[in-house]
Write a structure and sequence with these properties.
The complex is a heterodimer of chains A (351) and B (466). Chain A is an alpha/beta fold. In chain A, strands 2, 3, 4, 5, 6, 7, 8 and 14 form an 8-stranded mixed sheet that branches. Chain A is globular. The N and C termini of chain B lie far apart (98 Å). The relative contact order of chain B is 0.08. By secondary structure, chain B is α/β, with parallel strands linked by helices. Classes of the chains: A alpha/beta (351), B alpha/beta (466). At the A-B interface, strand 1, helix 1, helix 2, helix 3 and helix 5 of A face strand 1, strand 2, helix 2, helix 4 and helix 10 of B. Strand 9 of chain A pairs antiparallel with strand 9 of chain B.
C-alpha cells in the first residue's frame, strides 16, 4: 500500500508502525505537520498525544514516559532542538530509549524556516552536557522519513539510547510516495529496568546520578563501550562509486543533490560517484573508506562545513589521511539549497 | 516482616542503640519527617507496587534511598514534566512528584503550573523551606521579605526581588486541580495534619481523580542557621504568616470523560486507502520532467501541482511535490515544484523547469529565465509579457482566469491551466490520468470533481472561449 504524503507525515506514520505510544510536542515550523499528524492519528489508535508548554517540557515528559517503559517521541526544529539538549543528556545518562526528530531550519538564532543542515554537531555529536552520543539517522526521502523513524525506535530500544532523526525543512514539506509495511513492530519489554507502576518493576530505579566519582567513571566507560558496539549498525549508500574518480559525499537532501550532480557529471564524461551516509552516528566510516580510497572527495552540505570536517575526521581515522586533506566542499546556508549547477561547476574544478 | 518504623521504607534509621544510622538529611530537617509520612501513606494504602515516584534535584534527590517503590530521578525543575510523561504512559500507576521550592517555584514553575492546568493525574508534593537547601541556602521564590540567604546577604529586598511566591494561591486559580492544600511539619500537631493530607494525595491518585498539589512548610536548620527548635519555630511564627496553612481546593469530583474520537483498529486500518495506487516502477525510457507552478495564494497553484503529481502516480512514475512554505505561503506568492521521472529522483529542487506555469507577473519574471531549452512556459493572459523567454523555449499565453470567470467558476482557473498542460501535451502523462487525478483531487466533493472534468474538456477544446 502506498501513500503520497509529506515527509513530516511519513515520520508520524513510521512512529506509529514502530509502536510509539506517546507523542509530546511543541509546534515549530517547519516541523509542525508532525505534531498535527500525531494529534490526529495517535488518539485514533488509542495512543497519547500531549501538547507540551515548551520543548523543555516535551523532552522531560519523554524522560518520564520512557522511564515508565513506553516508546515515545517528539519532533522539533533548531531552536526547539537547542532547548532539548539538556533533556537528551539526561535520557542518555539514564539510558532511556526515545526518539527526537529535528527538521532542521536555518539558524543561528531565530533564523528562518527554510532548510539547513546546520544542527549537525548537536544532532550527531551529542549536543548536551557530558560524554554521551545519540543514534542519529539522516533520511533523504519521504520513504526514509518513514523507514528511518521506525529504525530509530528499533535502535533506541536496542541500544537503550535516545535516537535522533535528523531531517531538514525541505524534506519535511516535500510530498513523495511512501510504501507502508504490512505489519507493525511488536512493543519491546522494558520491565527489567523501567518504573512501570507494576509489582515486577517495584525495585527499578531510573536515574542519571552517580555521586561517587569512581561509579560515574565506570558508567561513562560503559557508555563508551556501548557506543563503540553501535558502530555495527552504521549504514551508508554508494552510487556509481566503483570506478569513480571523484566521490561526492552528502547526507539527507544533499545526498540527493549529489546523486543528480553525479549523473550530470557522467553526461560530460566525468566519472563521479556518491556516498550518502544514512546513519550519521554511528558514522559509516568503513563503508565510506571502501569507496573513498585514492579518490578526490567533495562534500555537498547546507551548513558551514561541519559535515565536511566530520568526513575529514572519519577518513583520517580510517587511515585515509591524504584523502581527508583533499576534501573540498560546496555549501549553501540561510535556507538556500546547493544547486546542481554549482555542484557540477565545483566538481569540474576538482578534476 | 516490616516493622512499623520501616513501613514503606527500604531501611530503618535507628537514633539510639548499637545500630545508629543516619539519612542524608541534616538534623532537624523537615524532609526526613515528610519522607517517612510519604512512605507510610504509600505502604498503608497498599500502593507500593503501583507507585512511581518522580524525584527532584535538590535535597530530595535521594528519596530513592528511602521509599520502597519504583523511582524516576528527574532533571532539576522537571519532575512535574517527567511525572506528566510517567502518568500518561502508565495511567494505572500512582504517580507522585516530589519537588522543592527552587525546583518547583523557580526553574520548573511553568512545567508544574501547566501540568496542574492540564489536570495531569499525578500528585505533587511540594516542600517549601523558603530557600535552596542543597546548593547552599540561596534565595528561593518563597524566601520571606527580609530573610537572609546566601544570595540575599542583606535580607530579601522586595524593591529588588519582589515578594514571596504563593504557589498554592496561584495554582488555586486553575480549574483542573482537584486538591490544593498547605500543611506544615513544624510540630506534632501539624505533622498529624500533614500525614492526613499526604494520605489524601495518594488516595486521589489511587482513585484516578486528578491533579493534587500539597505544599508542606518545612524547617531547614542548616540554612536558617538555627538549631532545630528555633528552625521549627521560624516555620510556625514567620513562614505561616506569609504562607497560611489550609485547604484551597477539595473537590474530588468524578474525572472528566475523554471525548470520543474516531478509532482505528491498527495502523493498517487507519492508513488503508481503497484506491491506493501501487508503488512507482522504474522505466528509463521515460524522460524526467521538472515543473514549476507559480502564482498568487488562492489561485489553486499548489493543488494544480498536486494534480500533476497524482497523475504521475497513477502512471506509476516516480514523483515528488514540494511547496514554497512558511511565511511565504501566507504572503502574496505561492509556488510549488513537481518532478516526474521514470527513475528514483535525485535533487528535488527545480532549478531549470521543463514546464513553467505562471498565474502572475512577479512569478513569471522571477522564473522565466530559468526554463530549460526545449521547455514551455504557460502564462495567464493577464500577465504582461515584458520579458521574453530564453531562446528555444515555447511561450503559451492562455486565458485561464478569463475562461474560469466565463464559466462562472472563478476558482477553477487552475483547472483551466491544467487544460493547457493537457492540450499542449506538456506533462508526458496521458489525458486520462490527468483527468482522473483532477477528479480525485475533489475526493471530498465528488460533484465538483465531475464539474471540473467537464470544464477541463471545454477549455481544452476552446469552444466556449469568446
Amino acid at each position: 500500500m502506498t501513500k503520497f504524503v509529506k515527509g513530516n507525515e511519513a515520520v508520524v506514520m513510521g512512529a506509529l508502525y514502530a509502536g510509539c505510544d506517546l507523542y509530546f510536542g511543541y509546534p515549530i515550523t517547519p516541523a509542525s505537520e508532525i505534531a498535527h499528524g500525531a494529534a490526529k492519528w495517535f488518539p485514533m489508535l488509542g495512543r497519547t498525544f500531549v501538547q507540551a508548554e515548551c520543548e523543555t517540557a516535551s523532552i522531560n515528559m519523554m524522560f518520564g514516559a520512557a522511564g515508565a517503559g513506553r516508546l515515545c517521541m517528539t519532533a522539533t526544529s533548531g531552536p526547539g532542538f537547542s532547548l532539548m539538549q539538556e533533556g537528551l543528556s539526561y535520557l542518555a545518562g539514564a539510558e532511556l530509549p526515545a526518539v527526537v526528530v529535528n527538521v532542521n531550519r536555518a539558524g543561528p538564532g531565530l533564523g528562518n524556516v527554510y532548510p539547513e543542515q546546520s544542527d549537525y554537531t548537536p544532532a550527531v555529536k551529542g549536543g548536551g552536557h557530558g560524554s554521551y552520543q545519540t543514534f542519529t539517522l539522516a533520511p533523504a526521502s519521504a520513504q526514509e522519513m518513514f523507514d528511518l523513524t521506525m529504525k530509530a525506535f528499533e535502535m533506541a530500544a536496542k541500544w537503550r539510547t535516545p535516537a535522533v532523526v535528523f531531517a531538514d525543512g525541505l524534506q519535511g514539506q516535500m510530498m513523495e510516495t511512501v510504501q507502508l509495511p504490512e505489519r507493525e513492530l511488536a512493543r519491546p519489554d522494558f520491565s527489567e529496568w523501567a518504573a512501570q507502576g507494576e509489582p515486577k518493576t517495584r525495585e527499578n530505579l531510573v536515574k542519571s546520578i552517580y555521586l561517587d566519582a569512581a561509579q560515574q567513571e565506570q558508567f561513562n566507560v560503559h557508555l563508551q563501550e556501548k557506543y563503540a558496539k553501535m558502530a555495527a549498525d552504521a549504514m551508508g549508500e554508494a552510487y556509481l562509486a566503483d570506478d569513480a574518480e571523484l566521490l561526492i559525499v552528502g547526507y539527507g537532501i544533499s545526498g540527493r543533490i549529489a546523486r543528480t550532480t553525479a549523473e550530470e557529471l557522467h553526461k560530460i564524461g566525468i566519472k563521479a560517484g556518491v556516498f550518502r551516509p544514512i546513519t550519521l552516528n554511528p558514522f559509516p566510516r568503513e563503508q565510506l573508506a571502501a569507496v573513498a580510497k585514492g579518490r578526490k572527495i567533495m562534500t555537498i552540505e547546507l551548513d558551514a562545513g561541519q559535515f565536511a570536517d566530520d568526513v575529514r575526521l572519519n577518513l583520517a581515522k580510517a587511515g585515509l589521511g591524504a584523502e581527508a586533506a583533499g576534501v573540498n566542499m560546496v555549501n549553501r546556508m540561510g535556507g538556500e539549497v546547493v544547486s546542481v549547477d554549482d555542484a557540477v561547476k565545483a566538481a569540474k574544478e576538482m578534476v | 516482616m516490616a516493622t512499623i518504623e520501616q513501613k514503606g521504607m527500604y531501611k530503618v534509621f535507628p537514633r539510639s542503640g548499637k545500630n545508629v544510622s543516619f539519612t542524608h538529611y541534616c538534623p532537624g530537617c523537615g524532609h526526613g519527617i515528610i519522607n517517612k509520612l510519604i512512605a507510610e501513606a504509600c505502604a498503608e494504602l497498599g500502593l507500593q507496587d503501583r507507585t512511581i515516584f518522580v524525584d527532584p534535584v535538590g535535597c530530595g534527590v535521594f528519596t530513592y534511598y528511602y521509599w520502597d517503590a519504583a523511582h524516576i530521578s528527574a532533571a532539576h525543575g522537571r519532575a512535574s514534566a517527567a511525572a506528566t510523561g510517567a502518568c500518561r504512559a502508565r495511567p494505572d500507576a500512582v504517580t507522585i512528584a516530589y519537588q522543592g521550592d527552587g525546583d518547583l517555584g523557580a526553574i520548573g514553575f511553568n512545567n508544574a503550573f501547566q501540568a496542574a492546568s492540564r489536570g495531569e493525574k499525578f500528585g505533587c508534593i511540594f516542600v517549601n523551606n523558603s530557600l535552596y537547601g542543597m546548593t547552599g541556602g540561596q534565595m528561593a521564590p518563597t524566601t520571606l521579605d527580609g530573610e537572609t540567604t546566601t544570595t540575599t546577604p542583606f535580607g530579601r529586598d522586595p524593591a529588588l526581588t519582589g515578594h514571596p511566591l504563593h504557589v498554592c494561591e496561584v495554582f488555586a486559580q486553575l480549574k483542573a486541580p482537584v486538591y490544593i492544600a498547605r500543611v506544615s511539619v513544624a510540630d506534632t500537631r501539624r505533622i498529624m495534619q500533614a500525614k492526613q493530607a499526604i494520605r489524601k494525595v495518594f488516595e486521589l491518585q489511587r482513585d484516578g481523580k486528578g491533579y493534587a498539589l500539597l505544599e508542606i512548610l518545612a524547617p531547614c536548620p542548616t540554612n536558617f542557621k538555627m538549631n532545630a527548635i528555633d528552625a521549627a519555630a521560624f516555620c510556625i511564627n514567620e513562614m505561616e504568616k506569609e504562607f497560611p496553612l489550609g485547604v484551597f481546593r477539595d473537590e474530588a469530583k468524578e474525572s472528566l470523560a475523554v471525548r470520543p474520537v474516531p478509532r482505528a483498529a491498527s495502523c493498517h486500518d487507519l492508513f488503508l486507502e481503497k484506491d491506493a495506487v501501487p508503488a512507482a516502477e522504474t522505466d528509463s525510457s521515460f524522460a524526467e520532467r521538472r515543473f514549476k507552478f507559480a502564482g498568487y495564494g488562492g489561485q489553486g497553484i499548489l493543488s494544480l501541482g498536486l494534480t500533476v503529481a497524482e497523475a504521475a502516480r497513477i502512471e506509476r512514475r516516480h514523483t515528488l511535490w514540494f511547496p514554497s512554505y512558511g511565511p511565504e505561503q501566507r504572503g502574496g506568492s505561492a509556488n510549488c515544484s513537481v518532478v516526474v521521472s521514470g527513475q528514483p529522483i535525485g535533487s528535488p529542487t527545480v532549478e531549470h523547469p521543463d514546464v513553467l506555469v505562471c498565474m502572475n507577473q512577479p512569478a513569471y519574471e522571477r522564473f522565466v529565465g530559468d526554463v530549460k531549452k526545449g521547455g514551455v512556459v504557460i502564462v495567464d493572459e493577464t500577465v504582461p509579457v515584458k520579458v521574453q523567454p530564453p531562446e528555444g523555449v515555447k511561450l503559451v499565453v492562455w486565458p485561464a482566469i478569463r475562461m474560469a470567470e466565463e464559466f462562472g467558476v472563478p476558482k477553477a482557473a487552475n483547472t483551466m491551466m491544467l487544460a493547457a498542460l493537457k492540450k499542449f501535451d506538456c506533462t508526458g502523462l496521458s489525458g486520462e490520468s490527468l483527468e482522473k487525478a483532477l477528479v480525485a483531487s475533489f475526493k471530498k466533493k465528488p460533484a465538483l470533481g465531475e464539474k471540473n472534468r467537464e470544464l477541463l474538456r471545454l477549455a481544452e477544446s476552446g469552444k466556449s472561449v469568446k
